[in-house]
Design brief:
The chain is mostly helical. The protein has nine helices and two strands. Strands 1-2 form a two-stranded antiparallel ribbon.
């Protein structure tokens, strides 16, 4: 195919001078998710709920100059080039094209994480420019963090509250109800006094039932935007999760 000259888009380095290009040589646009087609307006709505109307309003692709915000923030929808981590303001839910909800489809989250992980893995950018390698490493690291947080009940609750200005880690000591604190201390005492495998299993099972109950309450709290209750339940879950970790660690040693 015969090369031709074309002016680059506005606000791009190519616009300053005419550059030699060959049609159809730029990377392909990212393909839609296999399970459903994602519309940008839907993604923007969930991010706007958290960040306001400034979401992705200042996006400019570093390569082609496009001002159309990418669906996930990882790749430009026009040229397909990987974008810097700061190119678009969106939540971790937007990374995976999921609604900002505490109740989450973990299977769908895992599938989309694996798809993006393959596209952003630094090994795929070894022959790319230094800028692309840097961006892919940043995005890949951010993607891993997002997946870790959204796939964990406690971390997801803390993250959703922090997005709305509530830092439960800082407020934790003042939010736990005295009755709940007494309950947590009692469970911890039971675990400390458990000597046999059967005793530890019983404490672990009772604690797991409480854990599941709190998770259900959190789903209701966030669905109803009852953030005061969500904060208290998140702090409660934090203590219960710690006991769960300790019980699991003791069980693994005895089994």
């Amino acid at each position: 195919m015969t090369p031709c000259f074309q002016a680059g888009p506005l606000n791009s380095p190519q616009r300053r001078t005419f550059s030699l290009w060959t049609p159809n040589t730029s990377p392909k646009k990212p393909t839609p998710w296999p399970l459903q087609s994602v519309r940008y307006n839907t993604i923007k709505a969930s991010a706007t709920e958290i960040f306001g109307n400034q979401v992705a309003s200042d996006f400019v692709c570093w390569y082609c100059g496009s001002t159309h915000p990418p669906v996930t923030g990882f790749f430009c929808d026009e040229c397909g080039y990987v974008q810097p981590l700061s190119c678009v303001r969106c939540s971790f839910f937007d990374f995976f094209s999921l609604p900002a909800s505490f109740e989450i489809d973990t299977k769908l989250l895992q599938d989309r994480f694996r798809q993006l992980q393959k596209k952003l893995h630094p090994d795929r950018f070894t022959r790319k420019s230094e800028k692309e390698r840097k961006f892919s490493q940043e995005q890949s690291s951010s993607l891993n963090t997002a997946y870790k947080i959204l796939s964990h009940d406690l971390l997801r609750a803390q993250y959703m509250l922090k997005l709305r200005g509530h830092d439960v880690l800082a407020e934790g000591k003042t939010l736990l109800d005295p009755e709940l604190l007494a309950e947590v201390l009692e469970v911890r005492e039971d675990l400390d006094n458990a000597d046999t495998l059967q005793d530890i299993q019983k404490v672990s099972l009772d604690n797991q039932i409480k854990y599941s109950k709190i998770v259900k309450e959190l789903a209701k709290n966030f669905a109803e935007s009852d953030f005061d209750s969500a904060k208290k339940n998140t702090i409660h879950l934090q203590y219960i999760s710690k006991i769960k970790e300790e019980a699991d660690a003791r069980l693994s040693k005895l089994q």
